[in-house]
């Protein structure tokens, strides 16, 4: 990497980190051009050079943290020996992400992120394809071995992540009636019953 490329990467990181800090403190309305440039110490011109607009900065920030979440899920899944252990690992990793990175988790689960997904779902999905392929590569042999029910991959994904995403959204909305540790203890077994080949 050339010195110029390194400086560009550092500048991008400063802007993204500042945007996340502001988002965590004040929500999307707190992420203004003035606030980002003041917090990051980066010029307005550099913000537009690297991201094109404030919307581009927020999109890049959402993609960065969605990617990090997916990487954590893949790492957790591929570290597990059995399908059942994989489900437990994925649920634990997802809820740990919500607990450890509340601002980023709020952004990833935000109405803004949902709107982008609804408007450009295939494009978003295509960008996530390497991660999705890694997950599918771990799951398919366990279907072939008779551990996991032979369901279409999108339905398996929904059965596994749907309940976890619902808990995350509930927690991130400010409702404190779900304990993340309790959810990490209870959900994996319930989810496992929904996807295991023998239903047990």
What does this structure look like?
Helix content is 80%, strand content 0%. The chain starts with a helix and ends in a 5-residue tail after the last helix. It is mainly alpha-helical. The protein has eleven helices and no strands.
Looking at this protein, list some descriptive labels:
200 residues; mainly alpha; Arc Repressor Mutant, subunit A; Tetracycline Repressor, domain 2; 11 helices; 0% strand; TetR/AcrR family transcriptional regulator; DNA-binding transcription factor activity; Homeodomain-like_sf; Tet_transcr_reg_TetR-rel_C_sf; transcription cis-regulatory region binding
Number of strands: 0
Proportion of β residues?
under 5%
CATH topology of the largest domain: Tetracycline Repressor, domain 2
Portion of residues in helices? over 70%
How are the SSEs placed, and which strands pair?
Layout: H1 3-26, H2 33-40, H3 44-51, H4 54-79, H5 83-100, H6 102-108, H7 111-119, H8 121-127, H9 129-144, H10 153-172, H11 180-195
Helix pairs in contact: 1-2, 1-3, 1-4, 1-6, 3-4, 4-5, 4-6, 4-9, 5-6, 5-10, 5-11, 7-8, 10-11
Task: Summarize this entry quickly.
By secondary structure, the chain is mostly helical.
